[in-house]
Amino acid sequence: MSVDAISLAVFRSLFESVAEEMGVTLQRAAFSPNIRERLDFSCAMFDADARMVAQAAHIPVHLGSIPASVQAAIRAFDRFAPGDVIILNDPYHGGTHLPDVTMVSPVFVDGAPAFFVASRAHHADIGGMSPGSLPLSTELYQEGLILPPIKLAEGGQRNAGVMALITANSRAPEERIGDIEAQLAAQRVGERRLLAMTASHGADRVREHAAALIDYSRRLTEAVIAAMPDGSYTFEDALEGDGQQEYRIPIRATVRVEGAALTVDFSGTAPQVAGNLNAVTAIARSAVFYCLRLLAIDDVPVNHGCFEPVRVTAPARSLLDPVFPAAVAVGNTETAQRVVDTVLGAFAEALPGRIPAASQGSMNNVTLGGATETGSYVYYETIGGGHGAGPDSDGLSGRHSHMTNTRNTPVEALEYSLPLRVLAYRLRDGSGGDGFHRGGEGITRAFEFLTPATLTVNSERRVYAPYGLRGGGSGQVGRNRLIHADGSEETLSGKATRAVTPGDVLLIETPGGGGWGDAER
After folding, report:
1. Spatial separation of the C-alpha atoms in residues 68 and 417, rounded to whole Å
2. Among residues 137, 317, 382, 462, which is most buried (max CB within 10 A)?
3. How buried is 117 (Cβ within 10 angstroms: 0-12 exposed, 13-18 middle, 19+ buried)?
4. Do strands 261-265 and 453-458 pair parallel, antiparallel, or not at all (unpaired)?
5. What does residue 19 show for φ and ψ, rounded to 5 degrees?
C-alpha cells in the first residue's frame, strides 16, 4: 500500500465527514435549544491508540480535551465489546466541566477495536446547586452529577440504571433523555460510517491513511513553529474574581520557541482559587493548540499530530492545574478565553504586526431555570461580543470569538421554548476600541422574565478591558444589570446569582474588541 497526496486528501475528507455527519445527527435529533440551535457540541474520531484522527469544525475548547476523555474511557475498562458506549463528564477524568457530557464508542473491525468515535454536548442542566449547572460554586460536588467513565450501554444493551441516575439529577429530565438519545444516535452514525469505510477500502488502508494524516499534521505544525523566531516571550493578563470575591487573578504565559518545538509554561499563574474559575490542564492545552492553529497559513487538519510538537506545563495546584474537588464550572468558558488572550499576547511579542488585539474575552454565560404550570425548565446560552481588530481589518461585531464557536439562540426559538421575552438584541455602538483598525462592537441583549426563576451570570471583562495592540485602544468593558419590575436597577458583578420575579429584566452588555494600530495614523 502507498499514500500519495491525492489519496491523503480523499481520506482526510472521509475522516472529517464521519465527525461532521455525527454532528448533523446530534443537532437534528437534540431536544434542547442549547444543542439544537446554539450547536454547543463537538464530534471526533480516533484510532485504536486513542489518537484523534479528525474533529469536525465545532468547539475549539474541545480540541485538546476530547482526546483526554477518550483516553480516560479506554483506561477505565480492560476490554470492550461491539455496542459499548462509555459516558463521562468528570473534569478530573478527561472532562472539562460537568454539563459537557462525553460519549465514547469502540468501532470493531475483524473482532478488535480499530477505531473510536466520540461526541461531547453541553447539557443545559446536570444538577447542582443552581439551574444550568454553572453555579458560583466552591467545590465540584456543588456543580452537579459527577460521571466517571461508566458504560451507558454494554454489548448494545442499554443500562437503564445509569439513565435513571442522570435524569433523576436533572431539573429537566425529559430534555436530558432527548439529548442523550441524540448523542447515542450520533455515536451509531459514526460507527456505521467507519464500518462502511473499512468495507469499501479495507481496514489496513484506512489505518494507514489515518497514521499518515496524523504525521502530515505534525509536519505542518512544526513548520508553523519553525517560522517563529527562536526565543522566549512572556505576557500576563488577569481574571477579575472567582464568584466568591472580586480580585485580580493573574494568568502568565511564557512561550519558548526552539526550532520546530514550542513550549508554553504557565509558571506565575495564580494558585487555584476558591471559586468556579479553575480549569483542568486539558483546557489550557486546548487554548494553546487553538492559538497555534491561528498562525497556520495552510489548512492544518485537526488531529493528534497538531499536539506532538507542543508542550504545555502549569504549576501544580494552580488555576490551570487544580486538585480535586476544586470548582471548575466556568474554567471551561471564562478562564479558557483569558488563556487565549495571554498566549496571543506572548505571540504578539514574537510576531509583532501579525497578531490581532484582544477580543471580548468572555462567553457571557447566562443560566436560568424555574417552573411553570406544565413543569420545570432550564436554559443556558453564551452571548457574543466584539472581535479584536488586526493588522488588515477592523474586528467583527456581535460574534462569538476564540474558544467558543456556537451560534446565538434565535429570539423566536428562545421565546417559543421558554417563559422569556427578548426586549432588545442589538450591537452595542461605540464599544469597540479605537485604532487604525477599530475593534468590533459588543452586543446588548435584554431578557424579561415571565415567571419566577433563578438566574446566574458568569462573565469576565467587566473590570479589565480587552487590550489593544500596536497603539490601538482597549475595547469597552461589559456590564450586567438587573432592572426590577418596580423600576429599581441593580448593577451585577461579573459573576452573580439572583432570584428574579415576573417583570424583572436582565440587561447584558458585552465587551467590545480592542483596536489595532494608532488611530492618528
Report:
1. 34
2. 137
3. buried
4. unpaired
5. -65, -40
Which of 457, 462, 461 lies closest to 495 in space, CA to CA? 457
Q: Are 143 and 276 in contact (CB under 8 A)?
A: yes
DSSP per-residue letters across 41-72 = EEEEEEETTS-EEEE-S--GGGTTTHHHHHHH
Nearest Cα to 274, choosing from 239, 248, 250, 245? 245
Q: Concatenate the DSSP letters of all residues of 296-362 into one string.
A: -SS----SGGGTTTEEEE--TTBTTB--TT---TTIIIIIHHHHHHHHHHHHHHHSTTTSPPP----
56, three cell numbers: 469536525
Instruction: Measure the CA–CA gap between 183 and 102, rounded to whole angstroms.
Output: 9
Task: State which amino acid sits at residue 213.
Answer: L
Tell how many helices (H) and how many strands (E) occur in the chain. 9, 20
Whether the pLDDT of residue 258 is over 70: the answer is: yes
Distance from chain centroid for Cα 294: 16
The amino acid occupying position 256 is R
The DSSP secondary structure of 149-181, one letter per residue, reads SEEEEETTEE-HHHHHHHHHT-S-HHHHHHHHH
Helix, strand, coil percent content, the chain, rounded in steps of 5: 30, 25, 45
Q: Give the cell for residue 198.
A: 473499512
CA distance 210 to 19: 14
Asked if the bond preceding 356 is cis, omega within 30° of 0, the reply is no
CB-count exposure of residue 156 (10 Å: 0-12, 13-18, 19+):
exposed
At 238 the three-state DSSP class reads: strand
3-state SS class at 435: coil
DSSP-assigned states of every residue in 346-371: HHHHHSTTTSPPP------EEEEEEE
pLDDT in tens, 347-394: 999 999 899 999 999 999 999 999 888 888 999 999 999 999 999 999
Residue that has been written with the C-alpha cell 456581535 in this structure: 398
Using CA atoms, how far apart are residues 361 and 483, in angstroms rounded to an integer?
25
CA distance linking residue 91 with residue 86, whole number of Å: 15
Q: From CA 409, how far away is CA 387, in angstroms rounded?
A: 19
Give per-residue pLDDT as tens, 303-347: 999 999 999 999 999 999 999 999 999 999 999 999 999 999 999
Amino acid 14 reads: L
**CA 395 to CA 388: how far, in whole Å?**
5
